[in-house]
Structure formats: C-alpha cells, structure tokens
Amino acid sequence: MHALEVRNLCKAFGALKAVDDISFSVPEGSIFGLIGRNGAGKTTTIRMMMNIYLPDSGSVTLRGSEIGPDFKDKVGYLPEERGLYKKMTVWDTLLFFAELKGKADKDIKNKAMEYLEKFQLANRRNTKVEELSKGNQQKVQFIATVLHDPEFIILDEPFSGLDPINTNILKEIILSLKRAGKVIIFSTHLMDFAEKLCDHIAMIHQGKIILSGSLKEIKSNYGQKNISLVHDGDISFLKNDPFVEKVDDFGNYSGIKITDPSKAQALLKTLIEHNIIIKKFDANDISLHDVFIELAGNDDETENNNGALNV
Amino acid sequence: MFNKKTLTIIKRELKEKLFSKNFIIMTLLIPVLMFGVLGLQTFLINYNSDKSANIRIVTESSDLTANLITELQQKNFVKNKSYNISCETINKNDFANYLKAHKKELEAEKLTGLIFISDSAKATKKIGYYSKNPNDNAVFNKLKSPINKVLIAQYFEGKQLSEKDIAYAKESVDFNAFRVTSGDKVEKEGYGNRIVSFLFTFLLYMSMIFAGTMMMRSVIQEKTNRIVEILLSSINAKDLMTGKILGAAITSFFQMAIWISPLIILLSTSIFMLPPEFVMQIDMIQILYFMLNFAIGSITFLGLFGAVGAIFDNEQDAQSGIGPVMVLIIIPFFIAIGMQDKADNQISTISSMLPFASIIVMPARMTLFAVPLWEVLTSIVVNAATMFAMFAISGKIYRIGILQTGKKPKWSEVVKWLRYDN
Predict the structure, then answer these.
(1) Which residues contact B380 (CB under 8 A, 6 or more apart)?
(2) CB-CB neighbors (< 8 A) of B16 in chain A
(3) Which pairs count as long-range contacts for A163-170, CB under 8 Å and 24+ apart, including other chains?
(4) What are the strands, taking DSSP E only, across B9-168?
C-alpha cells in the first residue's frame, strides 16, 4: 500500500500553469525524492501537499484519508531557506513551533532536550538564534521540523550548509525516522543526495512529472541502455545494427547506446561473432544526474516528450 | 476566527513586543516627541515674533510724540532692546518728502517700518504703516495696544473724565469661554479641552503609525526569512494574521492605556488641583469611547499595514506602497488639528463619521464640542463596519501576498488577488 498518494494535482496562477496534472505515490517505509530545477513546480506541489494552497483539482491522500485542515499537525516541513525568529532563544523557538502543532505538554520539553543533546546544542538552549552559527541554526530548524513527531516530513535541501559531521548526524536521524515508519519527502535539485538517500523519486519539469518510480529501477533501466566498451578491432558495423541507437567510437574505447536493455547480451554476442577482442564490457549504472540532464536538460526535447515515463 | 493556534501566535507577538526593551523605549519616547513638537511650535512662533525691529514713529504733534515715548519705554520689547523705536515730530506737508528721504533705508530694511500718526488719527485712529513687509502681524500685535492707549489718553484729556473712566476705556475685551452642553451645567472653559484634544489626536496618530509600521516590518521579515512557510505548514493564513493583528493591537492598547492613565487619574480624583485655565471638561465616557475607538482603529489599520507588508518582499518597496494607507491617517490628523480653532465646521462633522477619518477626528471633536449622541453612535457603527470589511480584504491580500516572492506586484494584480478563491 502507498503511504501517500498524489493524484492529478493541478494549480494555475492566472495564465501560468504551475502544476499541471501531477500524480505520484510514495510507498511505505521509503524516502521519496522530489527532483526538479528551480521553478519546476516543486514548491507549489509541496504547498498543496501541506494544504497551504488548495489545488484547482486533484487530491492528496495520506494513508487512505484525504488531507484537510487537521492535517497540518501531522506534517513537519523544513523549507529550503531557513526561517527562524532571530531574537528568540533556541528553547523558545522549539516550544513555539511545537505549540503551533498542538503540542505543549511536558513530554515535548523532554523530547526537545533529547534532540538538543543529539545535535550537541543542549548548552545553547538559552542562546538567541541570531548568535548561533549557520550550521547550528539549521540544526535548530531541523529539530523544530520533527519535534512534534509528524507522520509526514518534507525536507527541502536539508543538508545545505552542514559540515560532514553534522551531515552524518542528520542522515542518521532521517534514516531512523524512516525506520519509525515516517513518510519522508526529500525535495532537492542536488542529484547526489537524492541518489544516496532516496528509494523512490519523481522528477518534475515545467509543472509535469517526467519520470517517477523506484530509483534502483530507473537507474538500472537507463544504465543498461548505456554500455561502455574497451576493445580491439573495428566496430563500425554496429552502426547498421537494428538495436544500436548510437555509437560514440573513440578507437579502442566506445560508448554504445542500445534501444532496449535486454539487448545487451545480443550486443556482446554480435561483437564476439565479429572477432572483436573485448577487454571490458560494462552495462554501467548511469547517475541520476545524467538521467536528469537527459530528460530535462534540453527544453525543446522535453516539450515534445508529452508522456510521463513510468517505470 | 479564533482558535488555539491563534492564541499561540498572540502569545509570541506579546512576548516579542510587549515584554521588550523597545516597548518601554517607545512608551517613553512618544510623549517626549509630542511635547518636543509642541515646544518646537511654540519656539517657532516666538522666534518669529521676537525678531528685532527698527521702527520709526512720526507724529504731527510733539505732545503725542512725548506720550508715545513715555508709554513705549515701559514695554519689555523696548527695554530688552529687541525693538528699537524712535519718535519724531514733523509737519504733515513734509511727510511726503520725509518718506522719500527714508525710502532707501526702508528698502534695505535698515528701517523695518515707518508709522505715521497724523492729527486726524487722534479722532479716527487710522494710522499709516510704511514698510517693505507691510503685513507684519508681529509689529502690529506689539504696537497696537500702546499706541491705542496713548491715543485714548489724548482723546479724553481735558474732557473731565476720572482716571478710572480712562482706565476703563483703555482696557480691551477679555473673552471668558463657557461650554454649553445638553446637561444642566454651564461651565467655564479653559485651555484644558484643547490640550486633551491635541493629546488624543497626536497619540492616535503616533500610535497607529508606529504600530502599523512595526506590523508591516514584522510581516516583511517573516516573508523574507521564509518563517511564514513554516508557520503556514502549521496554521492557516487567516488565523496567523488574526494572531499577529491581535497581538499588536493588545500591545498598542496597553501602551495607550499607560499614556492616558495620568488623564484618568486627574479625572477620578480631586487630589490634583489644576490652575483654572487648564481645567478640562472630560468625562469617563469620553475616555471609554476613546479607548474603544482606538481598539477598533488599531485593528483596522494593523490589518492594512500587514496586508501591504505581505504584498512586498522588501522594505523599500513597501515604503512606497504604504502611501495610500498613510493618507488615511495623515489627512484626518490634519482635520483634527485644524479643528482646534473651530470645532464645529462641516468638514470635521462629516469626517468624524466617515470610515477611517472618524477614528482620529471624532475623539478630538468630542473633547471640543458637544457632539450629539446619534453622531457618536454612527461613528462607532461606521468604524466597526470598516474594521470587519478591512479585516476580510486585508486577510485575502495577506493570504495570497505572503507566499509571493520575486517580482513586485502591480496594484491591478493585487486587486485580482481579491477575486481568488484560495
């Protein structure tokens, strides 16, 4: 069963269609990456998922029930640009945001203390936010996002500005939240992090989903179509081969793109039959970065690409 | 309109605004500023009239000249040498030449003015003033009374009148103002009510502009910091704005109560005796009206300032956008100040019942003039209706504007926002 389902969301601002019929679903127990360039429609989608904007049409369902006004208490949101009241102390900030989520009891204070200790901020609890370093402010912001124990967490570029140690602490916490069964949506334009952390992704471009599904499948699917070959012998005959889409021949190194991943074995066979000496044959893993460039890099191309590719 | 989350926002606003150093500073600073403005005004008026002057008085008879010298020498402005007055006696036929001879001095303002008292003036009291600046009220105000006294004394001389009769004739009229209200009492009016009227007007004006500007800044700050994104993931925009407005309104209300408290103490006890000219005819009902009116006005204007803050994402743009809202405060302020001279005129009557203007004009008008009850009730109804209408409009603008960043929106776009459903 899917933890969160987004169905046919549309939102227009005047003539501009910011989000145009977006659908995707987030499986239980996974971290979901929402990927796209700036202005692609990520923020508008997220705002509709949090009930800040009402969609023109479409629906968002969390574990079977459609989101409504009471949903706000179940969501934790870490925006891309950090937003804290500079003059408030760390402690007051945390309690204020928790109270806004309807949590004002004693438990929340204990939990806030726990988190502060985890992030080595316990001794700064009475410090004003403006006196903290950027990294520490970010940690406070993250604690404020998850302190009220939300079911559904949206993290917009959570790692920007963190040093490697804090990145690790944060990563561990995110993974533990995942194990605790939270639905985590991770929005980014940095493919590296998405690749490392996400199980599933949806790629948004110009208000539409151009790719969605399990990251593993996407990568292997795109990757298997790309084969790098180190060889001796002339492979120019491949250009006439029906299942070869493109050959970049550099003499003893070639990059070959095939029409169908299942044709890799057939390609290997053909090469052997033509007495090509194969030193390395790598149906390699393509990076998410390359996939993204391929799909969204050229606007003219993608505009013709109307059908979303579902894997 | 009210829920627990709104309360959380109010609490935060109060903590930030009411319990801050800034609150104490502003609470002290505004009265200082107010008296500063009053002081400056007085200074400017006095500065102007204390300008030194060089006056020549010419008469046709030496008696008159001598009497004038005696009278003028007793005056402070001559004693302290701010006015240098010389007197001469010449023949009427020579005056034209005399004037010609002194024309250059008058043009160069070496001589501020030349006063000619002809013999016929002894009966008609019409005297000539020749100067580069012939409408100099400062000179007239200073010299009118001593010259008049001398002329009166000369006129009655030898007419067998007693000193007492002459002294009576010299005395000018002194107005004693009495306030007539619908009540039974007819009371002697001092400056007290004018001071209170000025106080009310000035405090309303200052408080609304300061609290409004603070509100606008706070909204812009939340918008540029993106705090608003987190806030809106927890609370809907209308509740958020309600919380912010009420938080700021409670702070202003509390501040106003502090400013007004000396007045309340004066009215409710008889410990402090004011000099008779400062006694004021204000009752508690007027104070209550003032505070109610202030609460309604605060909420109305805080909403507008908040909405303007939401439209723009930096203070420079917002400063230019706030103009229309400022006009709604500044024009009534001038109407109310202008009323000090004449409370009962059509502009003040009408504006004291108009939306927005009523908030500042009516309290001042009530202290200067017995306003009929129906007018007071009308103004309460109008103000409350304005508040609810502005609250709805500001809420809509706020809701859309607060999430818009980037390009500065046009007013036509803002009008379009009002038609958005969500």
Answers:
(1) B289, B292, B293, B296
(2) 85, 87-88
(3) A163/A135, A166/A119, A166/A135, A166/A138, A166/A139, A169/A118, A169/A119, A170/A139, A170/A142
(4) 53-59, 83-89, 113-117, 128-131
Residue of B nearest to A80 (CA): B226
Where does a domain end: B188, B216, B231? B188
Q: Which residues of B8-18 are buried (b: 16+ CB within 10 A; e: fewer)?
A: bbbebbbebbb
Q: Residue B336's CB: how many other CB atoms inside 10 A?
A: 29
CB atoms within 10 A of CB B180: 10
Same domain assignment for residues B76 and B35 = no
Q: Tally A–B CB contacts below 8 A.
A: 65
State whether B16 and A87 contact (CB < 8 Å): yes
Tell me the pLDDT of chain B (422 aa) as tens digits: 468 889 999 999 998 888 888 888 888 887 888 778 777 777 776 665 556 788 889 898 888 888 888 888 888 888 887 888 888 888 888 888 888 888 888 888 888 888 998 888 888 888 889 888 888 877 888 888 888 888 888 888 777 778 888 888 877 777 776 766 665 555 556 677 788 888 899 899 999 999 999 999 999 999 888 888 889 988 988 899 999 999 999 999 999 999 988 888 877 776 666 666 666 777 888 889 999 999 999 999 999 999 999 998 888 888 888 999 999 999 999 999 888 777 678 888 899 899 999 999 999 888 887 888 899 999 999 999 999 999 999 988 998 888 877 677 888 888 888 877 65
Cβ within 8 Å of residue B105, ≥6 positions away: B111
Taking an 8 Å cut-off on Cβ atoms, the answer to whether A144 and B230 are in contact is yes
Tokens at A93, concatenated: 């900030």
Cα–Cα distance between A147 and B130 in angstroms, integer?
85
Closest Cα in chain B, distance from residue A83 (Å): 4
Pick among A45, A48, A50, A52 to test the B interface (most B CBs inside 10 A): A52
One domain for residues B336 and B372: yes
The answer to whether residues B84 and B175 belong to one domain is yes
Q: A99, B222: Cβ pair inside 8 Å?
A: no
Q: Which of B137, B172, B188 is the last residue of a domain?
A: B188
In A, minimum Cα distance to B17 occurs at A87
ipTM computed for the complex: 0.75
